[in-house]
Give the backbone structure.
Amino acid sequence: MKNILVTGGAGFIGSNYINHILDERDDYNIINLDKLTYAGNIENLKKSESNKNYQFIKGDIGNSEFVRFIFEKYKIKHVINFAAESHVDRSILGSEIFFRTNVLGTNVLLETARRFEVERFLQISTDEVYGSLGEEGKFSEITPLSPNSPYSSSKASADMMALSFYHTYGMPVLITRCSNNYGTFQFPEKLIPLMIINALNDKKLPVYGDGLNVRDWIYVIDHNKAINLVFEKGNIGEVYNIGASREMKNIEIVKLILKHLGKSEELIQYVKDRPGHDRRYAIDSTKIQTNLGWKPSFTFEEAITKTIDWYIENKQWWERIISGEYRQYYSIQYKS
Ligand code: NAD
Ligand code: TYD
């Protein structure tokens, strides 16, 4: 059995990872450490809660004493760090918690993992650390880091700290950098779930700026399969980019959602742009495809349809968010 500390496993990508991997592997014992911020939701893990190889612990990755206690108690030898403050707009409103969790929290995990001589430490990162592209080119693993938002700066800092633990102490660190994800259980502050839910409620769909910013979309299950491949087979000290080569302009996504739901494009509302808005992201995933044999298994068309249908069928999941104590986190509009 592998005792794996999964942090941030009650969030969007982490919960999908746990629900998926417990079906695939009976040699994984998952200890999920999550602070349950507004973005964490224990309901996402209903499918896994009774699995004998799964345990949930509420706590902060930044609490070094508590983290040490968990490593000791569960004989942790493997770490996958999903835990983060993850929303760019929120990092623009205030960056402190981003620094605390994404940088200092990761540092606590790294220091503790070093002391306990872990065999594998996978840091889940993002393509946003590379900055913004013009109309041509893609991010490869050797693209220099050039983060623009407080969120991406904090993620880049964590990446560099993690790599420094490999270079300095020979710690078995790996990093994945993925493009924009979509799928089940994504908190409706991010583009796709926000637009689906607003459209379902006949509310305006706020498109930042000219709507022509480009993101490279991947289904969360494909991301998680890539994560596990890197976790199992990746070379330590290395970075792996993950992306499904599906670039879309924001306005194209918004129109596609409206069309799928049979709603009018009159719901679209262009609003003031996000400050420092990165224009384009695109991932070159040649390395993981060539070295580890990964490729996406879902087409965009089938996965976006599954995703939209999931939000239609799981109204009770998102209704509690948009009408409950976390409704303030639902959508951010910049003042014009
Ligand atoms: P999310 O915001 O949905 O979930 C984050 C989870 O971390 C939540 O469950 C939250 O409660 C938990 N958390 C936050 N602070 C914590 C702390 N101090 N201690 C313990 N737990 C804490 O985020 P997500 O979209 O699932 O992203 C997961 C990871 O993947 C992040 O590291 C993010 O940077 C990275 N990533 C996300 C995307 C994307 O498109 N969403 C793309 C590439 C990489
Ligand atoms: P988001 O889902 O926040 O991901 P990221 O900024 O990390 O790529 O945003 C995706 C794109 O959608 C980004 O260009 C900003 C844009 N966007 C809007 O136009 N309106 C919105 O309400 C949101 C949340 C995002």
About this structure: The pocket of thymidine-5'-diphosphate (ligand 2) is lined by residues 88, 180, 190-191, 194, 206-208, 213, 215, 250, 274, 331 (CB under 6 Å). The chain is about 40% helix and 20% strand. The chain has a mean pLDDT of 97.
